[in-house]
Specification:
The protein is mainly α. The protein is built from 17 helices and no strands. The N and C termini lie far apart (about 55 Å).
Length: about 350
C-alpha cells in the first residue's frame, strides 16, 4: 500500500490496514483516552486551585466567579471538542459529499427531505462549502427542496453542538435540540419544494455537467484514523479562538449579570423575547463551539430554554456570511424565502418550548 503522498490521483488508500499498525494505533488511542479522562475529571479541582490558591481571589466575589467559570469551562469545552471532532472525522469518511449526493439522487421528495436532514448532521458543512455542495446536489438531480433540507440541517443540527449540549445540559436538552432542528430543516425544504422556485437559481448552475465518480474507493482504518487526527488539527485549530471568546462572554455573564436579569428580557413571559433573540443572533458570526458557553450562562441567569434555543439556532443557521456566499448561486428572492422560512421555523421552536417547559 502506497502512502497518501505517493498516490498520483490524491485518492485515499485502498486495501486492508496492516495488523501491527492498527495495534499501535489502538494503544496510542487508549493512552490518549486515559490522559483525556484524567484531565476532564480533574477540571473542577484544578480551576478552584488556580483561582483561590494560586491567584488568591476572594471566594464569592464576582471576579472570582467569572474567572473560575472561564478556567473550568475553557478546557472542558476544548477537551470535549477534541474528542468529538476526532470521532466525527472518522464518521465522515463514511459520508463523503459525493456519496451523499448519490444517496439523495433520485429519491422521492418527501422521503428525500427527511433523509437529507438526517445526512446533514453527519456530513461536512461550513459557510465556505455552501456553494460547491449546492451545485453538486443540483447537478446530480437532487430536488431543490431536498437540497435545502440538507443546507438547513447541516449547520443547524451540528454534531459538535449536539455532543456539547449533552455534556453540559444532559440528554433531554440535546434531544430537544435535535428534534426541533431536524423538524425545521425538513419542513423548510418541503415548503421550498412546494413553491417550485427552480427558476430562482442562477441559470449557470444548471449548465454545469454532473460530477462522475470513476469507481468506488475502499478506505482502510489507517486512513480513517488519519482523517480523525486531521479533523482535530483543522477544526479545533480554526475554532479554538471562538471557544475562548464564547467562554469569556459566558464568564462575564456568569460573574457580573445579576440573578434573573436575563429572565426579564429573555424569559418565557415576554412575547417579544423570541423574535428579539433571533434578530440578535442573525448578525453574529460564530459556531456551535463558541456559542454554547454563552447559552449555558444565559440559562443559568434565568433565560427561557425556548428563547435560548432560538438564539443559538439563528446564530448557527442564519448567518449573514452564508447568505452572502449563497448569492453566487441563488437569486435574491429565493435567498429571502429561504431565510424567512427558516426564521419562522426557529421562532416556532422558541415559542413551542417556552410553552411546553
Amino acid at each position: 500500500m502506497h502512502p497518501i503522498s505517493e498516490n498520483p490521483r490524491g485518492e485515499p488508500p485502498t486495501g486492508t490496514a496492516s495488523f501491527p499498525l492498527l495495534t499501535r494505533h489502538f494503544w496510542f488511542g487508549l493512552a490518549g483516552l486515559s490522559v483525556w479522562w484524567l484531565a476532564y475529571h480533574n477540571l473542577a479541582s484544578g480551576a478552584a486551585w488556580l483561582v483561590y490558591s494560586l491567584m488568591g481571589l476572594d471566594k464569592g466575589s464576582r471576579l472570582a466567579s467569572a474567572v473560575e467559570f472561564f478556567a473550568y469551562e475553557s478546557p472542558k469545552v476544548l477537551l470535549l471538542l477534541v474528542l468529538i471532532v476526532f470521532g466525527v472525522g472518522i464518521l465522515r469518511t463514511f459520508f463523503t459529499p459525493e456519496r451523499t449526493r448519490q444517496i439523495l439522487s433520485g429519491r422521492r421528495e418527501s422521503a428525500g427531505n427527511v433523509l437529507a436532514a438526517l445526512l446533514g448532521v453527519v456530513t461536512p458543512f461550513c459557510s465556505c462549502s455552501a456553494v460547491p455542495l449546492f451545485i453538486g446536489f443540483v447537478t446530480s438531480g437532487v430536488p431543490l427542496g431536498v437540497t435545502f433540507s440538507f443546507l438547513v440541517s447541516a449547520p443547524m443540527v451540528n454534531e459538535v453542538a449536539l455532543v456539547l449540549l449533552f455534556g453540559l445540559f444532559g440528554w433531554k436538552v440535546a434531544a430537544l435540540y435535535v428534534v426541533s432542528g431536524l423538524t425545521v430543516a425538513i419542513i423548510s425544504g418541503w415548503v421550498i419544494g412546494r413553491l417550485r422556485m427552480e427558476k430562482q437559481v442562477e441559470p449557470w448552475v444548471y449548465e454545469i455537467p454532473a460530477a462522475t465518480t470513476a469507481g468506488q474507493v475502499r478506505i482502510d482504518w489507517n486512513y480513517r484514523l488519519k482523517m480523525g487526527g486531521e479533523a482535530v488539527k483543522d477544526i479545533v485549530g480554526r475554532v479554538w479562538i471562538y471557544v475562548l471568546a464564547g467562554v469569556a462572554v459566558g464568564a462575564g455573564i456568569h460573574g457580573y449579570v445579576p440573578e434573573n436579569f436575563m429572565a426579564s428580557i429573555m424569559g418565557k413571559d415576554r412575547w417579544w423575547s423570541v423574535p428579539l433573540a433571533v434578530v440578535l443572533g442573525v448578525p453574529m458570526y460564530s459556531n456551535a463551539a463558541g456559542i454554547i458557553p454563552v447559552v449555558q450562562s444565559l440559562l443559568g441567569k434565568g433565560a427561557a430554554l425556548g428563547t435560548v434555543l432560538a438564539f443559538m439556532m439563528s446564530v448557527i443557521a442564519l448567518s449573514l456570511p452564508e447568505a452572502v456566499i449563497l448569492r453566487k448561486v441563488l437569486k435574491p428572492r429565493l435567498i429571502a424565502v429561504f431565510l424567512g422560512i427558516v426564521a419562522t421555523g426557529i421562532l416556532g421552536v422558541g415559542y413551542l418550548f417556552n410553552f411546553l417547559l
